[in-house]
Each structure stands twice: as C-alpha cells, then as structure tokens.
Specification:
The chain has 311 residues and is α+β, with helices and mostly antiparallel strands. The chain contains six helices and 19 strands.
Amino acid sequence: MYRTELGQLAGQRFAKGHATGNDFVLIADPEAQLDINAEQVAALCHRRFGIGGDGLIRAVPTSRVPGYEGQFLEHPKAYWFMDYRNNDGSIAEMCGNGVRAFAHYLIAEGLVSLQVGQSFQIGSRAGVKEITRLADGYAVNLGPWGLIFEQEAAEKSVDSMVKPRGWEQALPALSITMGNPHTVVALPDVQMLEELDLFEAPEVSPVPANGTNVEFVVPSEPLIEEDGVAQVQMRVHERGVGETLSCGTGACAAAAAVRYWARSTALINQWAVKVPGGVVGVEFRGNAEGGEDTILSGPADLVARGIIGSE
C-alpha cells in the first residue's frame, strides 16, 4: 500500500506544520483540481514511507467544494475551505489544531493577509469558523459544544462506558460534540493517565454514529488556580489516527465535560488544557444568540516545505 500511485499529487508543493505537536501535511489547491483518495492520503501521512502527519489539509475555495457551495453563498468572506483528512485517509468534520495550522499556512503562502488582532473566516465540514491572529498564535471560534446523548447525560451526568486497552473494567464517560464527536473520561490522578495504553482505540459503548475521539482527562487539584483559570491534563486517541500529541477539539470537549460535571459548584469560562505537545487555551464565551461559543487558542508553526515526489 505504501507504493500507492500519487496521481495528481506528484509534483505538488507542500508544507509540513503542527499545532502543539498535532502535525499535518498542507497543500494548496486554488483551482480545485486535485482529486485525492484515501489511499493517497494514508501514503503521504505514513511516518515511515511518506511525509508523515496526523492528517492532510487541503486549501481549496469553499465555492468549489461539492456540497458546500451554499456555505460560500451564505458566508462570502469564508473564501478558503479547510478540507481535512485523517491519517488513515478518512474524512473528518473538524480539527481544532488543524485550523490554527491552516491559518498559519494560508498567511505564509500569501493566500490571506492578516495582522495581529485581525480575524477572518474559513469554510469547513463543521460550518464556518472565525480565526483571530494573536501575538503568539491563533484563536478559533469553534462555535457551541453540545451533548451527543443529551437525555442520558442529563439523567446521569454520563452516557457511555469506555474500556482502555488492557483494562478489565470500563469507565463512565460523557459524549461531547464540537462539530466532531468526542467521548471524555475523567481519571483520578496523573499517574493513571500516564500509564494508559492508547496504542489501540479504547472500546466505547455506545459509540456515536460516526465513531469518536476518546479523551482521558485529569482535573488539577485545586481545579481553579489563583488567576481564575481551570487546569486539566489530557491524553487522546483520535479516530482514524491513533494517539496524538494534541487534539484541539478534544481539549475543548475535555474542558466542556469537566465543566459540565462541575456545574453544581462553578461556571468556569477560562481553561488551560495540558497535552503531551504543550498547552492550549479554551474559553467559553456568550454569543448573540443567547448561547455560548467555544474559543480554542494556541500556537502553530511550519517546519518544512517540499515537493511531493513521483517515485
């Protein structure tokens, strides 16, 4: 499979970027000419036989993405669409770290001009997202979070069971949507978090309709520091990828779950989520519709450029 014919991808310029260790192959397709299949994505993202990455991101005009032409008509400022594929070639709705890497790539390529403090919009399979450039990275408004199994969560504060590899007993969990699905498990201490075997996907029951990312989180003690920011530590197994150093939407889901569980004692809006690749910020902010949006912030970098080979 690693000798997969690259087709139109051969000879294409690419960049390699990451956001808190969540890494991506990035390519620009301004004329929407590339027809990329799952096997080609998996070959490019393979860490031994390809460029290597947790996923591939294609920058393509929103108006040229089949099924999303209407998104551009409703939001004409969202010129660029983030076409995201997981490491195994499967299509994902959203990637919070990927959005930051995508924004950084668009600016570096001269496809978007953005100064610190300015914002712009992009199209995605999870809807239009607004990105703001910060002095030390980017903040993306991922929109509202939600409960996947709302009735069960309201009744029990959990809605599913998760069994990590090598465990005899499953653990209770809460299913959160950030435009993509997540299942969050709380652990009592950091040692248990560090000893988890996430080489294989944990068993989840019930599984959300399109599969799920699984986050294991340990709240700090005390949860809220003197600066008013809640602190949690997290590891994640991403669907279609495996364990990654970071997951932006997963960090948001983890903060939302802990916040949901702590709702009887506090409504906490500022969070710092420590992942193996660094720290990301999560903010819950009221919106004009009377609900609240989820803002993810953190750094993004480009580390390499090249041309995809044909041999």
